[in-house]
Specification:
Helix content is 36%, strand content 19%. The protein is α/β, with parallel strands linked by helices. The chain has a single domain (3-92, 101-183), classed as Alpha/Beta hydrolase fold, catalytic domain (Rossmann fold), CATH 3.40.50. It has a 6-stranded parallel beta sheet, with helices on both faces. The protein has a two-stranded antiparallel sheet with strand order 5-6. Strand 3 (60-65), helix 3 and strand 4 (83-86) form a beta-alpha-beta unit. Helix 1 packs across helix 7 (173-183). The chain is globular and about 40 Å long. The two termini are 24 Å apart.
Length: 191
Amino acid sequence: MTHYLYLHGFQSGPQSLKARETHDFLAGTAHSFEAPQLSPYPATAIAQAASLIVARQQPLVLVGSSLGGFYATHLAERFRLPAVLINPAIHPERDLARFLGPQHNPYTGEDYVLTEQHMAELEAIQPPAIHAANYWLVLGTADEVLDWRVAARHYAGARQTVFNGDDHRLQRWPQCLPGLLGIAGRAATIY
């Protein structure tokens, strides 16, 4: 049995549609699923996810969407885990800089403030290299938030599924769900 740890994106949460679709699909299998509400602060979010990984005594696959894809990359490299990345952020310290200041998460109702310190935390966890064989990248070419071509280049050599005309929400994510089972039990490449 494999455990799937879903990491949501910026201003999102475990109640997001992709998280619920993934949960519902895996509920019909022998595998387990977890989608924690991550802190809006990067260092705290990484510490939360890392503690969940360390606590697991079974094979684990990371699934990360957008900012969660960036977090999943950091954690996949750190713990040598396979990861599925949905429209992942590549340089969130740049992408999120325009959101500095007061924020409100519509999923949790939480008010918080993003600062330059949080952008530095994101920059500090940027992996110096990635092992492409450990990733499955799922992208939409009409992503209105992130340029899919940047991710495709960044993860060159990784398995990539690109949906022409799909957006950041990735409407066709349910088509990919059976593919998650192919990752279950696959050991990460040793490096």
